[in-house]
Design goal:
globular; 16 strands; 5-stranded mixed β-sheet; alpha+beta; Metallo-beta-lactamase, Chain A; about 25% strand
């Protein structure tokens, strides 16, 4: 069945194709540029937008889905429908999160390459060093997150359980400004740290098409969390938003859900974080001496849970990480300070003056 529908950005028509025996949705967004909808079962994100650029000599797949059978089946069905030859398929990753990278080593062509920013590539390799990487989780323990909850989170979080095998493919580390040819187009690497330290967007300058990954999403807000080695993840994210605020964008292709008007959404995201920063600061003012877990429990979250105590452990971990990013932002600017108690837990206070 073929359906024609108007694109939200009102610049062309989409060709939608649904295979008779699958739930895979394929859209031709622009000449030889396709979206494959990859379901994310049980995940609040619901679906990944995987993008495919068809070329004469090689093809490029942008982002893949979790390392899970339904994701693999849907992605393979879409690739087959488009007519992708696995032997000439490269993979480009916007960032290391497993909902974007989990299948990379299974769908990249034999003797082909996986492109990812060098910073996220280093983190991918480092995460494989231990079953519970202390370099990342020690911070959470010092912020009031129990080790028992962290171990449960690690056992159940798809980010860990459904990640790619980073030893099974050939990587090409990217840097800001690197160019990747694909299907007669030239993708420009725009490094936008924040969502991850090596998060990237990819820009077709002549066509003004932007693959925004999870840097700019339209009906959900990207999670900005603490990352080891990054003193100010939220500051990095805000600076990245501002850096490309005026980028000429005719079509934005985000990592999840619907598209929209790029500049308007960037401005909305900047306002959102001003509000969240004010919220976190006000909680510390009103309740001096709380740890980050306690502060996160007083922040407002859009989640189906009766209370902070009933948050699913993975969502609680995300919430605390996002809270930490906002606390770090204030501390980097001298507005808050943290004092470590005799129990090794950090407690937050407003800085005088």
């Amino acid at each position: 069945m073929q359906i024609k529908t108007k694109h939200p950005s009102d610049h062309n028509y989409l060709l939608l194709k649904r295979r008779e025996n699958t739930e895979t949705m394929i859209e031709e967004l622009y000449t030889n540029i396709y979206r494959i909808g990859v379901p994310l079962p049980g995940n609040p994100l619901k679906e990944l937008n995987s993008y495919f650029i068809k070329g004469k000599e090689s093809d490029l797949l942008i982002d893949t889905g979790f390392r899970r059978e339904p994701c693999l089946k849907a992605l393979q069905a879409g690739l087959e429908e488009i007519g992708s030859d696995p032997a000439r398929r490269d993979v480009l990753l916007t960032h290391l999160h497993s909902d974007h990278s989990g299948l990379a080593d299974l769908v990249v062509g034999r003797e082909r390459k996986v492109f990812i920013h060098e910073t996220d590539l280093a983190l991918l390799h480092r995460f494989r060093e231990t079953t519970l990487p202390e370099f990342r989780y020690q911070r959470f323990i010092s912020e009031g997150f129990s080790r028992e909850l962290l171990e449960e989170m690690y056992r159940t979080n798809p980010a860990m359980t459904e990640a790619m095998d980073s030893t099974a493919c050939t990587f090409v580390p990217l840097r800001d400004g690197d160019r990747i040819p694909a299907g007669g187009y030239m993708l420009e690497t725009l490094c936008v740290p924040g969502h991850t330290p090596g998060n990237c967007m990819f820009y077709l300058r002549n066509e003004q098409i932007l693959f925004s990954g999870d840097h700019v999403l339209f009906d959900i807000t990207p999670n900005i969390t603490y990352w080891p080695g990054a003193a100010d993840s939220l500051g990095d994210y805000i600076n990245s938003l501002k850096r490309y605020l005026d980028l000429p964008v005719h079509m934005t292709l985000p990592g999840h859900r619907q598209t929209g008007i790029y500049k308007e959404r960037v401005e909305e995201l900047l306002v959102h974080h001003v509000r969240r920063l004010s919220e976190a600061y006000a909680i510390v003012q009103k309740h001096p001496g709380l740890n980050a877990c306690e502060i996160a429990g007083l922040m407002k979250w859009k989640i189906r849970a009766a209370s902070w105590e009933t948050f699913p452990v993975v969502q609680k971990w995300f919430a605390v990480g996002e809270c930490l990013a906002h606390l770090d932002y204030h501390m980097q600017r001298g507005r808050l300070r943290a004092e470590t108690g005799s129990d090794g837990i950090r407690h937050y206070y407003e800085n005088p003056g």
